[in-house]
Amino acid sequence: MQTIASHKPQFIALFLILLVSGLLNISLGSVTIPLSQTFKALFGEAMENASWEYIIYSYRLPKAVTAILVGGGLSLSGLLMQTLFRNPLAGPFVLGISSGASLGAALLLMGATLLGSILVSDVSLVVAASVGSFLVLLVVVLVANRVRDTMALLIIGLMFGSITAAIVSVLAYFSDAEQLQRFIFWTYGSVGNLSWNQNALLGAVVIVGVALSVLHIKSLNALLLGEQYAQSLGITLKKSRLGIILVTGLLAGSITAFAGPIAFVGLAVPHLTRQIFKTMDHKVLVPAVFLYGAILLLLCDTIAQLPSSAQVLPINAITSIVGAPVVIWLLVRKRKLFF
């Protein structure tokens, strides 16, 4: 079995690419800051321009940290879902968790006439999305305790997503233009709206999610061989399945609440990682997928900022426009899916 040590060169390369991606993300934007000055800021030295210091510490550095947490967390939850369902099309939002967060946000933003506009703020938006994703996750967990077939659980999760999407559509139909516009902006996703305190909270959740994922590595490797074989290895299927669902819900739900629904990353990054590392061992895949996801979202956010321009593109669009052709090219080049 391959270990992290046998992939040491790839992991060193990933750390270096992550470092370079982070520096580019912090340096480039509507105001271009020289790399040498960015280095000074990161090492706590005085910069030539006080406004650059303010931009880096108050905006770009927390945005880069958010991109790392969101990209890594979504990619890891995608890996967990693809392994649990043994389905390459499964993603972090397949259980309807993202749709639940969207429903919570929609109820707040488009039901503002009932709740009162005073309740609508960035904090209440995070709370509403968290409650929505948590409630859907709670229902999924209850269903998971009654349904033995993993594929049936996958279909039920998709149905939950359809129901919540339908309710959001009804709310959108009866909303005015301003409410609808605010909800649409939320669905674009963003990693640039979090303060340091919010980043600390999100970071704590992601660290807990990563730690719990590491604890499930043995179960994940066994599930790849089939449920019957996993049971013969001493894996308790019900307990493992519930644990993996809870970890995915924790990661995907909290990330969606803070950054909005960001598509593509959770679905594609596990495939990219498997194609390059050529292994199915989750001891290697868990850290590798997290790093790849962090790098991809940093690069996509850098592009979305449109360097030297005041305009910012929706990061949801960039992740798909940039990432999808890469996955297609990789699969065509390799001629088959490594799954």
The DSSP helix count reads 15
Rg calc: 20 Å
Mean pLDDT: 83
The best one-word shape is globular
* Portion in beta strands: under 5%
Percentage of residues in helical conformation: over 70%
Based on helices, strands and strand pairing, what is the structural class? mainly alpha
Which spans have pLDDT < 50 for at least 5 consecutive residues? none
The first-to-last residue Cα distance is 16 Å
Please give the largest β-sheet.
none
Topology, number of strands: 0
Helix-strand string:
HHHHHHHHHHHHHHH
Oligomer state of the chains in this structure:
single chain
Walk me through what this model shows.
The protein has helices spanning 8-27, 35-42, 50-85, 97-110, 112-115, 122-144, 150-173, 177-187, 196-215, 217-223, 227-232, 237-259, 265-277, 282-304, 315-334. With 339 residues, the chain is mainly α. 44% of the residues are buried.
What attributes does this structure have?
339 residues, mainly alpha, 15 helices, globular
Short description:
The chain has 339 residues and is mainly alpha-helical. It has 15 helices and no strands.
Give a topology summary.
Elements: H1 8-27, H2 35-42, H3 50-85, H4 97-110, H5 112-115, H6 122-144, H7 150-173, H8 177-187, H9 196-215, H10 217-223, H11 227-232, H12 237-259, H13 265-277, H14 282-304, H15 315-334
